[in-house]
Amino acid sequence: MSIGIWISLIAYFALMIGIGIYAYRKSTDSSEEYVLGGRNLHPAVAALSAGASDMSGWLLLGLPGALYAAGLVEAWIGIGLFLGALANWIIVAPRLREQTERYGNALTIPSFLANRFPSQATTLRVVSALVIVVFFAVYTASGLVGGGKLVQSAFDGNYQFGVWLTLGVVLCYTVVGGFLAVSLTDFVQGCIMMLALIVMPLVVLYAGEGGGFDQAAETLSGVEDFSLSLTQGLTAIGWLSAVTWGLGYFGQPHIIVRFMAVRSVPAVATARNIGMTWMFISLIGAVGVGILGRAYVERNGVSVEDSETIFIVLADLLFHPLVTGFLYAALLAAIMSTVSSQLLVSSSSLAEDFYRLFFRRDASETEIVNVGRLAVVAVGVVAAFIAGDPESQVLGLVANAWAGFGAAFGPLIILSLTWKRMNGYGAVAGLGTGAVVVGLWIWAGWNSEFLGGPGVYEIIPGFIAAFAAIVGVSLATGESDEYRAMPAE
């Protein structure tokens, strides 16, 4: 491999570890600092941290790969995600920032739910923490799969080595620097990702002979099972399954925890504007990589064995080694930003919602921080073993975990922030119902085939069932007095 690529990658790794050391010196003295950065994130850092931790390797591997394989119809997932993210910033972000601090200065989602519904505090804390740890182990595995594929495809290396290398670098700065390190590295990684997604489609569009939009469209018009139409071959169920990805945003702990850490409620609006602009540009770039990459491959007779590696293939073929190294760093940034966020949220739940609750209620701040560090390593190792199969598809793993969180936590978070009649019994019912329905739907295979037709994405039945369970059980068990019993605004 070229020395230029190594120079770029080593510089990137050094920057990430350097940020971790800075964060260690700045913000790891207490659990609030280690878990939430002292609730003092700049709006731009919170916005790009939420975006980078959200998109992961899916943005540079999964989405371009889906578009490369089938065409523009796969863009409906991106459209649904954009609308869902916007609604999340508007509905959840300002309320969660204010209420998590007001309800006992909750540092994790499980502790917020326990404080919001004290009648079912222990049950909510334990069940929600279990859901977080289990689903995040799978979700984190999807990121490590991306790291393994990068090493295997770009460097002709060993897939397993790529998985463990990715995990090792992430652990270096996450264990040391905590939330501030994760957020600052996310900010840098988000900038790298967006720049890469601007540069690559433009270069691919005009690379080689016969470049340009008209030529690309003409090339793609002759490709079998590929279309530049948003609707060709799209069924109503297929469309619904794609756009409802956006429902998942309301229940993603690694994203909404950023809302809890913004330095003030008024700063949320600024963060929202920055974050949505970043997301729009990045999604357009990812669509461009998939569609224009397919045109380039067809025009030049390039062989691509795995559609999810189209970003890697183009980076290797079309750019100077220094730039190729930067593009590889962008892919690693997408992967690592999400993995680090997920590991930190999982470890926070294990430390705050298990260790402190059941083993050491009087544990010191230093002890809790150290337990959190050990938990980061433990969850990471479990995820690496889950990611052991090199045939794993990034988009498939993400889809399952995204649906699990979206259905289990989405209705629960929305209603706990907005509906005063919701009570603890309804909260427990919704949390359990959402997780169980998603699991059963996947187990039955109905996300692949349903009633003889196309599959229905599991988040749809899970979200509806959880929402109905919360409302039905809350109304059936009487009006809640828990909301009125908490401190006034």
Structural class: mainly alpha
Number of helices: 19
The major pleated sheet works out as: 2 strands, antiparallel
Biggest sheet: strand arrangement: 1-2
Account of the protein in words:
This protein has 489 residues and is mostly helical. The protein has helices spanning 3-26, 31-36, 43-70, 75-91, 93-102, 109-116, 121-154, 159-206, 213-221, 236-243, 253-261, 267-300, 310-318, 321-359, 365-386, 394-418, 424-444, 459-476, 482-485, and strands at 449-450, 453-454. Strands 1-2 form a two-stranded antiparallel sheet. Strand 1 (449-450) and strand 2 (453-454) form a beta hairpin.
Structure summarized in a few sentences:
By secondary structure, the protein is mainly α.
